[in-house]
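Why do we bother with holo predictions? Because pocket geometry can differ from the apo form. Keep that in mind while you read this record for BTX.
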Amino acid sequence: GSTKERVLQALLQAKKDDYISGAQLATFCDVSRTSIWKAIQSLEQDGYTIVSAKTKGYRLDGDSDFVDAAHIEPYLQTKEIGRTIVYKKEVTSTQTVASELVKENTPHGTIVIAESQTAGRGRMERPWETTAAKGIWMTVVLRPDIPPHQAPQFTLVAAVAVINAMKALYPSLEPVIKWPNDILIGGKKTTGILTEMLAESDRVNALLVGIGINMNQAMSDFPDELQTIATSLAVELGHTVDRAELVAMICSYLENYTQLYVKHGFSRLKTLWEESSGTIGKRIRATTLREVLEGIAIGITEDGVLQLQLDSGEVRGIYSADIELT
Ligand code: BTX
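The structure, written out:
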């Protein structure tokens, strides 16, 4: 990497209170003291707080908790997903940035991640609230060789990846998937997933899997209208969490499940999905664009379509809807 990246790595590796001298950094990066000084200036311009003490050198301030490559890469165990990280302090929407990168042929597995979004979005152009530096706001670019009609299934694939990554890191939590795209804890939304597709006639060019996770917000960080329906992992756990660690864990699960999907289709993942579902077996109301249906959610199909058994006994396939437990 560049001198700047190496300086950042060295600062991150040094324990929080340990200073590294300019001379040590210069030796480590094999550049002059002047280059080190320039790299430090540039990191400060990027928003890092670097404390310098005349005789001791430099140290990274503990508040520089970013979800950039320097923080994510030490945790990353994947081959492809997360190997290209595009990190921004602020974007309109990571989905928009990702779609621009696809035009420049960015590789499968690229992640676009930001500290904040000014126009984060959910499904049907609904706004997605993005508390700065308190969550994971990212888009994963996947380029699987699949036909366009299978794209919506990636919302389910991503949901299983995110929920299992959460369970792996925070075993005391009991998150459930609400079909198709939410992860709830205690009935409140921690995570939303939005899959968008860029297609070329009969093939998928890229899938933009947008993942928004409330992580380190206090309840007071949420706007009034979300107070009763949203929660964060920190609220549920009682302590803050390392966002970069969860990003890397999600990349691992997503890489694994994407491979499974491409090889075997949705069948293997269907069982995993059902295991984490808070919807199956429950009585629900589904609001589609055309009608409102009530019944028991009895399962999902191999295509990810929700099966709703109406009171008449008739089973209807739900492709797209908002659902609530009744
Ligand atoms: P959705 O349409 O299922 O959910 C949107 C609804 O969720 C909103 O109408 C609001 O009621 C509620 N909501 C908004 N913000 C939050 C929040 N922070 N926590 C809990 N509930 C909220 C869900 O759509 C898909 C969201 C994907 C977000 C990611 S972030 C990275 C990527 N970039 C981007 O613009 N979107 C995705």
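The chain has three domains: 3-60, 69-275, 283-325.
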